[in-house]
């Protein structure tokens, strides 16, 4: 293994961290996963997840940790869109030969359009619009819960729990969705309040698949929430269109669930993403190391 060079791409989101290891030719050697890596929610936890996922890549490839010294890594991390968090992350002592740290939105945009100019709206635990045109970056939203991230999984979860308490008060009626959520707290509204005191966006986001499922089953509250989420995603998409973004993609874990609720003109503008944030991070690692051609 002496003299070999490796590329590591990392997609660190609010729910999980994924990593992919490749050699300079672009051949994938191993993949790994770990816990959340949103550095705005905790830099130490995020970096521990990054290293945990990277070590799983090494194990899958049959390599030891000495290979870190031969590795160019691109860490695409949720929360790295904020200057203070990004600066703190760049001060971390990491074992890689060279480390590039960017926001997960930039890597997702790179992956979605194969490095070409374009824009994306991410609908995952959080939400954000991002475009790259002529080397310039444009951002919409993604300022974090509870101030922003409308239409995201965390936003859906928060709005659902809010309505559970409304039903508890008798202000609205109980539905399948609200009943399913309150059952997770054994029917105790006080348990919800205690849980909410420390709940993270990822905790709220875990309710989003239930919202999407209940909406498909005709639950009126769930459908109302999915339509409201779609309106927020449409607003971000229309802003990207106003910037004359050449191609647009909807990405993230909830993209497929939200897409049917979007206006027809928005759906017609969307193109299928070529890759995701993980493939984009690996492409950026290749560019950083001078191995651009390997991943094209």
Low-confidence stretches: none
Oligomer: single chain
Beta strands, count: 9
User: What order do the SSEs take from the amino end to the carboxyl end, as H and E?
Assistant: EEEHEHEHEEEHHHHHHEHHH
Tell me the β content.
15-25%
Straight-line N-to-C gap? 25 Å
Main beta-sheet strand count, sense and barrel state: 5 strands, mixed
3D shape: globular
The average pLDDT value, as a whole number, equals 94
Helix content: 40-55%
Strands of the largest sheet, in order across it?
A: 3-2-1-4-5
Radius of gyration based on Cα positions:
20 Å
The count of helical stretches stands at 12
User: Which class of secondary structure composition applies to the elements?
Assistant: alpha/beta
What does this structure look like?
With 296 residues, this protein is of the alpha/beta class. It has twelve helices and nine strands. The protein has a five-stranded mixed β-sheet with strand order 3-2-1-4-5. A four-stranded mixed β-sheet has the order 8-7-6-9, with helices on both faces. Helix 3 crosses helix 12, helix 5 runs antiparallel to helix 8 and helix 8 crosses helix 9. It is globular and about 65 Å long. The two termini are 25 Å apart.
Would you summarize the structure shown here?
The protein contains 12 helices and 9 strands.
What is the topological layout?
Elements: E1 6-12, E2 17-23, E3 28-34, H1 43-61, E4 71-77, H2 83-90, E5 98-103, H3 104-112, E6 118-123, E7 127-133, E8 136-140, H4 153-169, H5 176-183, H6 189-196, H7 201-205, H8 208-216, H9 220-242, E9 248-251, H10 255-258, H11 264-269, H12 277-289
Parallel strand pairs: 1-4, 4-5, 6-9
Antiparallel strand pairs: 1-2, 2-3, 6-7, 7-8
């Amino acid at each position: 293994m002496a003299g070999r060079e490796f590329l590591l791409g990392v997609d660190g989101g609010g729910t999980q961290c994924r990593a992919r290891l490749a050699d300079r030719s672009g051949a994938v050697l191993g993949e790994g996963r770990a816990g959340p890596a949103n550095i705005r929610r905790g830099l130490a936890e995020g970096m521990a997840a990054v290293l945990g996922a990277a070590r799983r890549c090494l194990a899958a490839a049959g390599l030891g940790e000495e290979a870190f010294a031969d590795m160019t890594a691109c860490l695409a991390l949720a929360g790295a869109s904020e200057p203070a968090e990004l600066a703190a992350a760049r001060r971390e002592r990491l074992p890689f030969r060279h480390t590039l740290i960017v926001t997960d939105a930039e890597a997702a945009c790179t992956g979605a359009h194969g490095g070409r100019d374009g824009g994306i709206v991410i609908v995952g635990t959080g939400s954000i619009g991002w475009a790259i045109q002529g080397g310039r970056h444009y951002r919409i939203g993604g300022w974090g819960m509870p101030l922003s991230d409308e239409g995201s999984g965390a936003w859906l979860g928060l709005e659902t729990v809010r309505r559970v308490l409304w039903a508890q008060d008798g202000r609205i009626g109980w539905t399948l969705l609200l009943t399913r959520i309150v059952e997770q707290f054994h029917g105790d509204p006080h348990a919800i309040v205690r849980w909410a005191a420390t709940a993270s966006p990822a905790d709220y986001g875990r309710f989003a698949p239930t919202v999407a499922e209940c909406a498909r089953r005709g639950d009126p509250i769930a459908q109302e929430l999915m339509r409201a989420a779609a309106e927020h995603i449409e607003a971000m998409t229309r802003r990207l269109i106003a910037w004359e973004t050449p191609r647009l993609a909807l990405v993230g874990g909830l993209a497929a669930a939200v897409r049917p609720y979007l206006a027809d003109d928005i759906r017609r503008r969307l193109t299928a993403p070529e890759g995701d944030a993980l493939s984009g991070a690996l492409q950026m690692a290749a560019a950083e190391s001078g191995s651009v051609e390997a991943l094209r």
